[in-house]
Amino acid sequence: MRPIERDLERFKAIVRGEVKKRAREFLTREELLGQLEGRLVSIPLPQLELPKIVYGEPLEEGLGLGPGGEGLGPGGHVPVAELELEEFLDLMGEALRLPRLRPKGEGEVTQEALRHTTIARKGPRGLRHVRRTLKESLKRALLTGEYREEDPRLVPEREDLRYKAPKAKPQPHAQAVVVFALDVSGSMREEELRLVKTLAYWITAWIRRHFPRLERRYLLHDAEAWEVPEEEFFRAREGGGTRLSSALLLAEEVLKAYPEAFYNRYLYHFSDGENWPGDTEKALEALGRLLPSLALYGYAQVQPPGREGSFLYELQTLREGSEALATAELSGPESLPRALRRLLGGEG
């Protein structure tokens, strides 16, 4: 290995180590969240400067101090390295112990793979099939009497040429849909919504890492539920009471457009767990109908100071016999790694 290649591998190892070491920090850095839509992720790197011995009087700024900031590169900028999104997510997943997602079925037959399994009379020179071309040339020479055993050379003519040709072959392609439902009643505060936004970003990124064909739907609810575009999902603020069943009933309708046989279906619900009296039974009935057809139902309950909703505990009645139910509590940024792991079906 050449020195420059060895240096490059060493640099990549430093970047990978930095991601794994600071995974929990990266989880809550909002400037990284927007990058999950692209192909490259910029990773800020620490920069160490060796101490220098300077003879003479101390500088005016103080002994050992100078202008600039700690860890800054030339021009006062933090040095960064770029990673492919897939590699970044894999490193984050390894550091946070996120589970690998397995398709429930093969998915819809929508993708066609091209394989060169047929023969054509026309094609590019690079795909010329030598054996078939010589075979056609021999057949022609035998039929016309041109073939001589004492001089068996074959000179293919235009009509003898044969080429490898592609043939489309349908292949099953796993795909998924994820539905996010968010409680925007008056009891949900900005701090809780910020945690939910972070969770939703990472859930989306991790599911899409396993299912490139991922569709997303977004629901808001208070006492009623309605669908919104993604950009409105985290900006909406409503008031009034809460009926958790409204979100589950609307999700049930939305998911009818994504048959279980063709889609891995994920449903995530974020709330503080405070529900309208008498609505919990209706919500559990709707969820009971949904669970058998879901790859996963994840419920995250935020815990505002001084309040504690009860829906998280009511869900325990459905946990027995269902592997598709995952729950987590959100009490602050420090709870995000565990909540993310649990909501993706991993162990807490």
Written account of the structure:
The protein is an alpha/beta fold. The chain is 34% helix and 22% strand. The protein has 12 helices and 10 strands. It has helices at residues 3-21, 23-27, 30-33, 85-96, 130-144, 190-210, 230-233, 244-254, 280-290, 311-314, 316-319, 336-343; strands spanning 40-44, 80-84, 109-120, 163-172, 175-183, 213-221, 225-228, 264-271, 296-302, 325-330. The strands form 3 sheets. Strands 7-6-5-8-9-10 form a 6-stranded mixed sheet. β5, α6 and β6 form a beta-alpha-beta unit. α1 (3-21) packs across α4, α6 (190-210) packs across α12 and α8 (244-254) runs parallel beside α9 (280-290). The radius of gyration is 30 Å and the shape is flat. InterPro entries: UPF0229, vWFA_dom_sf. This is Stress response protein. It comes from Thermus filiformis.
Please give the structural blueprint.
Elements: H1 3-21, H2 23-27, H3 30-33, E1 40-44, E2 80-84, H4 85-96, E3 109-120, H5 130-144, E4 163-172, E5 175-183, H6 190-210, E6 213-221, E7 225-228, H7 230-233, H8 244-254, E8 264-271, H9 280-290, E9 296-302, H10 311-314, H11 316-319, E10 325-330, H12 336-343
Parallel strand pairs: 5-6, 5-8, 8-9, 9-10
Antiparallel strand pairs: 1-2, 3-4, 6-7
Helix pairs in contact: 1-4, 6-12, 8-9
Pfam families: DUF444
Protein name: Stress response protein
Organism: Thermus filiformis
Say what the CATH topology of the largest domain is. Answer: Rossmann fold
CATH class of the largest domain: Alpha Beta
**Gyration radius, rounded:** 30 Å
* DSSP E strands, number: 10
CATH superfamily of the largest domain: von Willebrand factor, type A domain
Percent helix range: 25-40%
What share of the residues does DSSP label as strand, in percent? 15-25%
Using the 3D structure, state the CATH architecture of the largest domain: 3-Layer(aba) Sandwich
Q: How confident is the prediction overall: mean pLDDT?
A: 81
Which class do the helix and strand fractions yield? alpha/beta
Order of strands in the sheet with the most strands? 7-6-5-8-9-10
Helix tally equals 12
Count of domain modules? 3
